[in-house]
Design brief:
The protein is an alpha+beta fold. The protein is 46% helix and 15% strand.
């Protein structure tokens, strides 16, 4: 090799350019989950082949959504995931949740049901703890507020019906949609879920706060109390 000869670039440099071009041409539909994850990892790891790490993450957490939604502590258990990598993944997760929320807020819930479900899945499906969220609706069924009421353990969240109704009155809401996740992934309502919902129904009725629905979010699926005839 002569002094003027250039050292060949690592193979992953050309791979990055090709992957970016494929994404620019076809969007995420033209990529596997691990390839989309590679694009995210490029920012956090600028000078290393990230394909092996992307594949390891997908194998560990099951999907692109599973990776970006995984808790930092579990992400850091994967060799090659630094604080910088975990932060980049959390930024992507926050952006996806904000995008889903933006499509849902200040719009009639009934006519925007798909966007509402997408938001609930993005924000709650992969959480390892049970979260109880309330969507507050005005008289036109527009969502005026979205709040996490309680966060519990892996299988239980304490909910206080009077506090739920009190908050609805503070916000001037005439109806609410209850939402909580089942970290097990199975959205089948428990007896406790049904009893708690009935208590909130009973607490809201005298003051004109109705429960439009109660959604239980599982892994990629959901259950609606209204569809089941429980409301």
């Amino acid at each position: 090799m002569t002094a003027s000869a250039k050292k060949p670039e690592p193979h992953h440099v050309g791979h990055r350019d090709r992957l970016r071009q494929r994404f620019a041409k076809s969007g995420s539909d033209g990529l596997h989950d691990y390839e989309l994850l590679e694009l995210v990892l490029f920012r956090a790891i600028p000078r290393r082949d990230v394909k092996p790490l992307a594949k390891d993450l997908i194998e560990r957490f099951g999907s692109f959504a599973g990776v970006i939604s995984a808790p930092n502590q579990r992400l850091m258990e994967v060799p090659g995931v630094s604080d910088k990598v975990a932060l980049e993944l959390k930024v992507v997760q926050a952006a996806s949740v904000k995008l889903a929320q933006g499509k849902m807020m200040d719009r009639p819930a009934i006519s925007n049901w798909t966007a509402l479900l997408d938001y609930c899945q993005a924000s709650m499906a992969h959480n390892e703890k049970e979260i109880f969220r309330i969507l507050f609706l005005d008289r036109k069924n527009k969502i005026i507020a979205d709040e996490v009421q309680q966060e519990g353990t892996i299988d239980h969240t304490p909910v206080y019906p009077r506090e739920v109704v009190k908050r609805a009155l503070e916000l001037g809401a005439s109806a609410i949609i209850l939402v909580h996740n089942h970290p097990s992934g199975d959205p089948t309502p428990s007896k406790a879920d049904i009893q708690m919902t009935r208590k909130i129904l009973d607490a809201g009725q005298p003051v004109g706060v109705s429960v439009h629905d109660h959604l239980v979010i599982g892994m990629g699926e959901h259950v609606s109390f209204k569809s089941l005839g429980l409301i």
